[in-house]
Design goal:
By secondary structure, the chain is of the alpha+beta class. It has one domain. It is built from 3 helices and 6 strands. β4 and β5 form a beta hairpin. The protein is elongated and about 70 Å long. The termini are far apart. Keywords: Membrane, Transmembrane, Transmembrane helix.
Length: 128
């Protein structure tokens, strides 16, 4: 019985240490975009899933997604997403990726969230 208690105690210590290391890794950037809990949950969803993006926030006018930066494939996940919705990639101007469809242009705003993640926003009018 005493051995089980020691084992459980040691496992709990390692879990707390792992959680603290994870928070230390992403902690400095948690508060830069508002509610840190939504971003923490989204980063965990990305880590635990095979998806390349996670819906971060949804309002009447915009949808905001979180993606992980992977090597030299900068913003490819955004381009693939928009192409799957029927949009054609035109160019990048500053922090905006410009897409066109039926003579209409849509701008997807992209910004770096941390060394490992970036946020991208789409206006809901262009989402359908």
């Amino acid at each position: 019985m005493e051995q089980i208690r020691k084992t459980i105690f040691i496992l709990m210590i390692f879990m707390v240490m792992g959680f603290c290391l994870y928070l230390n890794h992403i902690g400095p950037v948690l508060h830069q975009e508002g509610n840190p809990i939504a971003f923490l949950v989204s980063t965990l969803k990305l880590k635990l899933s095979s998806s390349e993006y996670v819906l971060l926030a949804k309002t009447e006018k915009r949808r905001r997604y979180l993606s992980q930066i992977k090597g030299n494939r900068e913003y490819e996940v955004v381009k693939d997403f928009m192409i799957s919705k029927g949009w054609e990639y035109k160019e990048q101007m500053g922090s905006g990726l410009i897409f066109s469809k039926n003579g209409e242009d849509a701008v997807v705003e992209v910004r770096q969230y941390s060394n490992d993640y970036f946020i991208w926003e789409i206006q809901k009018a262009f989402f359908n």
